[in-house]
Amino acid sequence: MFDIIEIVKNRDPQEKEFHQAVTEVMESVTPVLDQNPLYRQAKIPERLVEPERAILFRVPWMDDQGVAQVNRGFRIEMNSALGPYKGGLRFHPSVNLGILKFLAFEQVFKNALTTLPMGGGKGGSDFDPKGKSDNEVMRFCHSFMCELFRHIGPNTDVPAGDIGVGAREIGYLFGMYKKLRNEFTGVLTGKGINWGGSLIRPEATGYGSVYFAAEMLATRNETLEGKICLVSGAGNVAQYTTEKLIVMGAKVVTLSDSSGYIFDETGIDQQKLDYVKVLKNVKRGRIKEYADKYSAAVYTPVDPEADHNPLWDHKADCAFPSATQNEINANDAQNLVNNGVVVVCEGANMPTTPDGVDIFLEHAMLYGPGKAANAGGVSVSGLEMTQNSMRLAWTREEVDNRLKLIMKSIHRTALEAAEQYGTPGNYVNGANIAGFVKVVDAMLDQGLV
Ligand code: NDP
């Protein structure tokens, strides 16, 4: 089995995050491959790690000073066995082919777990929206779509948001798609509510992550009521994770951005969260300003030399990493254990390094990997596609109820698969195996394509 990991490493040695994602999935599914020789005969592992299509393009745009700028655009169409490619666009300076391949690979299995008919993809650019004016962001998004439009469509590939791509960016991208194609279709999800978006889509990843944590706790007859929670990030996922945790009676004491984090021992209530939403989504400010406004909060800037992140070194019950990949290393994982944390629920994609994951599993924590725990976002994206096709809009309650049911079903599916393959309570194995089997059986049905 480990041949495939060697093949991937030798072929693209610089794509570290992709190696990490492939290694985790392939290690989990080894018993499945051993029991089903047909999978190896059909070269399923080799096919899964190769994108069906990877598009790389130039994105030229003009800044406010009238200076021409050039960025790189990408779309990875990873696997369409279960439906049109589906997955977000990330705009962040760290974006490269390896990061997007890891995200697209994860997306394939995550989308399979939702039970909705969606393949997997991911895309984005090394463009940094931070510090750019609205007009610069618009010109960039329009230029990006001038190439992307020929590769996507409501039955082909349906992108959404991710880091750096929120409602503003989706609006500009959709506007240019509509102009170029001369058609109004559900080609992107995360659209504005009055022009085809779904209620609960902005909230879905964060709410879904909290629903997943509640399901995990229920297996030990516990609830989120009164739990102290560490949340990282201050963007879309972190904000709505915090919002739902407040509703469930938990107390959130941290938030962060790429510059540092705040610790508010008195808890972040809805009023303080509303301040964060305006700070981040409207003013596009820094989380440090929270500590300027609320004297109970302490701000700690990022120390690039540190071997651990102090955000994860507070007494708590639950941790919701909701910023970015590899934000919890082995030291952080050990600190979480030492501080009494029992639930780690990943709103972000692959936020824990492999040695960190090992520590969570060794301590039998309730550890919900991103592939399962953050699938609420793409689930409601799938529901947005359904509503667009039917040309109707469901109520908030209807979408939220469907989201809850999907998260419940993902939790049960992962738990059952883990049990079936001899690793009870191991949601990593469970999610990887359940997603894998669904995708590869569809691939086998469709022949060698
Ligand atoms: P946002 O852009 O809304 O927010 C991202 C947050 O994480 C910001 O606070 C940002 O800080 C911080 N961050 C980003 N990169 C880094 C970094 N390298 N180091 C430290 N902090 C960083 O993105 P989302 O909330 O949408 O996404 C967060 C995570 O959730 C990502 O892993 C994403 O893939 C995942 N996810 C998102 C889904 C969605 O529906 N949006 C669905 C499923 C998963 P700063 O402002 O300083 O950049």
Task: Please describe the structure with a list of short key phrases separated by commas or semicolons.
five-stranded mixed sheet, globular, Rossmann fold, alpha/beta, binds NADPH dihydro-nicotinamide-adenine-dinucleotide phosphate, seven-stranded mixed sheet, 12 strands, about 450 residues
Query: Under the CATH scheme, which architecture of the domain at 204-373 would be assigned?
Result: 3-Layer(aba) Sandwich
CATH superfamily of the domain at 204-373: NAD(P)-binding Rossmann-like Domain
Major beta sheet, specifics? 7 strands, mixed
Based on CA atoms alone, the radius of gyration comes out at 21 Å
Number of helical stretches of at least 4 residues = 17
Our measurement of the CA-to-CA distance between the termini, rounded to an integer number of angstroms, reads: 22 Å
Bound molecules: NADPH dihydro-nicotinamide-adenine-dinucleotide phosphate
Secondary-structure-derived class: alpha/beta
- Name of the CATH first level of the domain at 204-373: Alpha Beta
In one word, what is the shape?
globular
Strand content: 15-25%
Low-confidence stretches: none
By CATH, the topology of the domain at 204-373 is Rossmann fold
